[in-house]
Amino acid sequence: MNDTSTVIQLDYSTYDDQTGFNISVDNITELSIGGAIGGNCRINSTRAQSFVDSIKQQGVLQPLIVRPSSCKEKVELIAGYGRWNTAKELGIKIVPVILRKFTDQESLQAQLSENLQRKNLSIVDEAVLARKYISLCDGDYAAAAISLNVSERMLRDRLQISRATSAVLSELNNPDSPITLGHTLILSQFDQKLQNSTLQSILENPTHYTVNTLKSLAKKRKLTLSKALFDTTACKTCKHNTGEQLTLIPCEEDDGSEQCAKVSCFNEKSIEWTRNTRKNELEDKFGTVIFISEKEPEHVNFISESVLGEDQAKSCNQCESKVVILNDLPMQWGKYIVDQCINLDCFKTCRSNFEKASKPETTDTDTRSAIQSTTTSSSINTVETPKTITPTIIKNAAVVTPKIKKSTQEDYDLLLQQAGVIELKRNLTLQKAMTLASICKTSGFKPEINAIDTTCFTFNEFVNLFAMALTNDQMDSLMAEGVIFHAEHSQQHFPKSLMAQWSENDEVISLWMPTKKRLNLYSIEQLQSLCRELKIDETMPDNKFNAIFKGSKSDVVDAILNLKFDWSNACPTEYLNAESRNLRD
Fold it and tell me: Are 84 and 25 within 8 A, CB to CB?
C-alpha cells in the first residue's frame, strides 16, 4: 500500500485494481447497488469500547475496501463500515483504503464475507446474513449453507427468524427486552400486521405473555376458510372446522363463515399450494420462479422499456436471469411480480448502454419498492407490477445477448450437431480429418509430419490446422498407425463444438420443427413471442391468435402444434446466432 499522508483527489476509476492510498472520509460513500444503498447488514452496529479506543489512539490501521464510484472523485465503501463510522465520529479526516474493481455481485459477496467473520454476531445478525446469502445464491440452500459454514437445518432456522418484522428483531436484539427467541419464532409465522400488534401487547404485559402463553394463543387463532387458496374439500369434515362445531368453538367473526381453528395446518397447506401448484402455474406461463423469502429487494431489478430500451427489454425475455418473484410469506401467499432480473451486473450493463444512447433527461425507474410492498401490504393486487413512465424508445442502444436456459441450449446444440453430421456425410476429407483427430485425442497417439508438434492442439485446431492440410494418403497412413496405437488405450469424449463450425444455417432451419418436447422448453410468454417472431400472428385475426395463449401451457403447446402453418422455413433466430451457442471442447 502506498503509505502517503496526503489526500489524493484524482479520478479513482483510473486506478489499478488493489491500489492502496489514503483518502478523506468525506470522499467515501456507502455501497450503491442499482440505486439501493448497501452497508453493514448487522442490526446492532454498536462497537466495543476497546475498538473505539484503539482507533482513537492509533487511527485506522486496517485499510477499508472500496471501489470506484460514478462520481470520479469519490469511492464506494465495500467493507470497513465500523472503522469508517468510528473515524468520522472521532473527527479523523484521513483513512487508508484499498481499491478493488469489484462488480455489484462481487461487492455484495465481499461485504457479507466481512460481516460473517466478526466474532460478536448476534442471532439476529446471523438471520440477516442467512437471508442475504440465500438471496445471492438465488434460493440455493446448499450453496448458501456452504458459504455460511453452517448446516442447511441451521440456515433454515435463521431464515425463519429473519421473517420476523424489523420491530420484533430489534426487540430480540435488545438485551433489556422481554422478547426471546421463542417469542420470535412464533411471531415469525404470521403476517407483519399481526406480528407488530402482538409484539406491542407482549411489551405492555410481558409477565402474562410468556412463550407458552403465546404458543397457546397461536393455536387458538382461527382463519376464514373462504380465504384459503388451497382445495378446502377435506376441510368440510375436519374437526378443526368451526362450522362443524359452532356450539363448542365460537367464531371470532360470527358472520356464518366456516373457520379453521388449526392455523398450523392452514399455513402448511397454503405454503404447499404456493410452492407447488402456484409455482408450477407461473413457471409454465413465465419461466423461472423465485420465492420472495429467498430474494432480497436490492438484489432484483425490474425489466422495462423505460429502463433498458425496447430492444434490450425484448431480448431479456429469453434470458434465464429473467424471473418471477412469488410471495410465500404468511397471508401474502400466491401474489407475484413479473419481469424481474436477478443478474445485477448484466442489468447494470444493459441499463448503462441504454442511458448512453438516451437523452440526458431520460428518467430511470427503480422498482424495488414494489417488491418490498408485497411484504408489508395486504391490499395489493394478485399481480403487483410496478408503475413505469411511458418510455421514450431508443433504437441505437447496444443490446446484450441474453444468457440462454440450459435446456434450450442443449436443444440448440443437438440441432447444430445434426447439421454438422449432414456436412460430415458429404465431405470425405472432413471424415478422415475427424477420424484421425478422434483416434489421436482418444488414444494419445501423437503424429508428427513436417516437424509439427500436435500435442498442444485442441480437437478443433488439430482438424483445421493439421489434419485438413494433409493429403489423403498421409491421413490414411496416420489413421492406420493410430488405430493400432488406439487398441492399447482407453476412449475419451468426442467434442460437439466442431460441428458448429461446419453447420450451415439453411440446414439448421430445415432440421428445426416444432415438437411437444421442444416447445415445452419455453414459457407461455416466450411461446407467444416466438410465434410473433415467426409471423404466425399475421396468418390469423388478433383475437384468434391471442386466444391460443389463454389456457394452460399444455393447451398452448397443443394449439401451436395443431396450427396449419408451413414450418419448413421457420426457425427461432437464437438457433442461428453463433454468439449464443457458447460451445466448448
Answer: yes
Give the closest residue to 479 by CA, choosing from 529, 522, 443: 443
Type of residue at 287: G
- In the block, cell 433454515 appears at 156
**pLDDT > 70 in the chain, percent:** 82
How far from each other are the two terminal CA atoms of the chain, in whole angstroms? Answer: 41
The answer to whether domain 12-121 has CATH 3.90.1530.30 is yes
pLDDT greater than 50 at residue 389: no
Give CA–CA dist 193/164, Å, rounded. Answer: 11
Q: How many CB atoms lie within 10 A of CB 62?
A: 12
What is the number of alpha carbons within 13 Å of residue 431 lying toward its C-beta?
10
Give the contacts of 139 (CB within 8 A, at least 6 positions apart). Answer: 290, 291, 294, 295
Distance from C-alpha of 284 to C-alpha of 298, rounded to nearest angstrom:
26
Q: What is the C-alpha separation between 548 and 539, in angstroms, rounded? A: 13
- The grid cell for 564 is 396449419
Instruction: For residue 398, give the 3-state DSSP assignment.
Output: coil
Burial class (CB in 10 A: 0-12, 13-18, 19+), 404: buried
- Model confidence at 367, in pLDDT bands (50, 70, 90)? very low
501's enclosing H/E stretch is: helix 497-502
Q: What is the mean pLDDT of the chain?
A: 80
pLDDT given at position 544: 93
> Among 72-81, 96-105, 214-223, which is the least confidently predicted range?
214-223
Q: Which residue has the higher pLDDT, 266 or 580?
A: 266
Whole-number pLDDT of residue 249: 37
Beta-bridged to residue 67, according to DSSP, are 76
Give yes or no for residue 47 having a pLDDT over 90. no
Q: Please name which of 73, 65, 60 lies closest in space to residue 31, comparing C-alpha atoms.
A: 65
Domain map of the chain by residue range? Answer: 12-121, 286-376, 406-502
Q: 36 has which bridge partners?
A: 33
